[in-house]
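Revision sheet: structure tokens.
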Amino acid sequence: MNNLKSKISIRMDHLQSLMESNSHLERPEYVLDVINSVNKFWSVLSEEDRDYIHGARYAIEENHEWNV
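Predicted:
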């Protein structure tokens, strides 16, 4: 289980880095790929991670800057 948590943490950290640099505005397909790489762990994600993913998807869909 520790290995799984590590994988999730690495991917969420990468997603956070992409969002904070507003990469989703330039490369939305890539950021969605990163989101999808985390989504396969949805059942074990924390509520905080799930909320973050929802917010990231919304920012991509609406083409909004990330100011969190």
